[in-house]
Design brief:
The protein is of the alpha/beta class and about 350 residues long. The protein has 11 helices and 17 strands. Helix 8 links the parallel strand 13 and strand 14. Helix 4 packs across helix 5 and helix 4 crosses helix 10. The chain starts with 5 loop residues before the first strand and ends with a strand. The relative contact order is 0.16. Bound molecules: NADP nicotinamide-adenine-dinucleotide phosphate and zinc ion (2 copies).
Amino acid sequence: MTTNASTVPAYAAPAAGAPLERTTVPRRAVGAHDVLIDIKYAGICHSDIHQARDGWGRGIYPMVPGHEIAGTVAEVGSGVTKFAVGDRVGVGCFVDSCRECEHCRQGLEQYCTRGGTATYNALDKNGEPTYGGYSTRIVVDENYTVRIPDGLALDEAAPLLCAGITLYSPLRHWNAGPGKKVAIVGLGGLGHMGVKIAHALGAEVTVLSQTLRKKDDGLKLGADHYYATGDDVTFRALAGTFDLIVSTVSAPLPFDKYLGLLKTDGAMVNVGAPEEPISLNLFSVIGGRKTLAGSMIGGIRETQEMLDFCAEHGLGAEIELIRAEQINEAYERVLASDVRYRFVIDTATI
Ligand code: NAP
Ligand code: ZN
Ligand code: ZN
């Protein structure tokens, strides 16, 4: 016997830019290949704020954000083979994809050529809106669910489902490791996981932050160096230094200045998703054969690999646990770069 479709408590933005408020949303019946997850914790990603305020456009409302989901399996469908009731599991930024295209077959479901189904602010294969993790329960296909290793606390694991994988994937792809000088731009939710992971991979890590306010934290997280980007002295002193720069900044950056910090053949990978376009002088990449690239989260297999890596190295997120009624206040603090370093909602308070 599996649970029928149900309604569950959630926090939603009723319209673009409106404060989030308590409501209920539907969850589908548990299908043969589904798991029903009791959500324990949900991280607040800056992408939640971009979307709740319709900064990227095409928002679907009411919107229940949340794609950093950690919880336990409450029920499994008859055909589920990977999970059992009680297992500790996570769900990240997408809950389905076509499963047939070249990228899906390679485990790069995040780049599904037919477009996957985002965990929220999307329509599923049946045309029903998806609702995310600011909620108490969710039904997800087992193939889009990952296992949270015992070594990770569930609340500190939740942010790994987006912030962790978004940094792990490019750091691995561009070979961050011993002998490599890696800079992480922006010490927020993504950035602080970037510092931890790049350090654990053996790279020499530099934080480039707007100010030196968080320098002590940055060094404790594993950075070897920490600079403020507010004045040009830093850019002159560090010219030609880095093999790899990963920018996590949520606003448009002066990319030409940052590209000047790369060595010949260096790469700057942008994971931040600003609402405005940027301008670029192409001479910044021509000289020195430099690469300016982007990267989006990671596939299911790589997300599991990242969780196992983080458990092995003791890398949970630094979190501030909040009650659901503090979500709107937390959004303001993220926008003010006043997050240390991820807000996580205790979903028992929904
Ligand atoms: P966050 O916690 O707000 O961190 C962003 C950090 O960027 C801030 O803490 C701040 O660090 C720095 N920053 C903010 N405004 C800045 C400005 N105007 N100039 C320079 N630096 C600034 O946000 P997040 O959750 O880490 O997300 C960051 C961005 O990545 C968002 O745009 C989000 O949508 C995007 N994202 C992309 C992916 C992907 O797959 N590519 C996945 C998740 C999120 P300092 O105080 O240290 O300067
Ligand atoms: Zn995210
Ligand atoms: Zn696909």
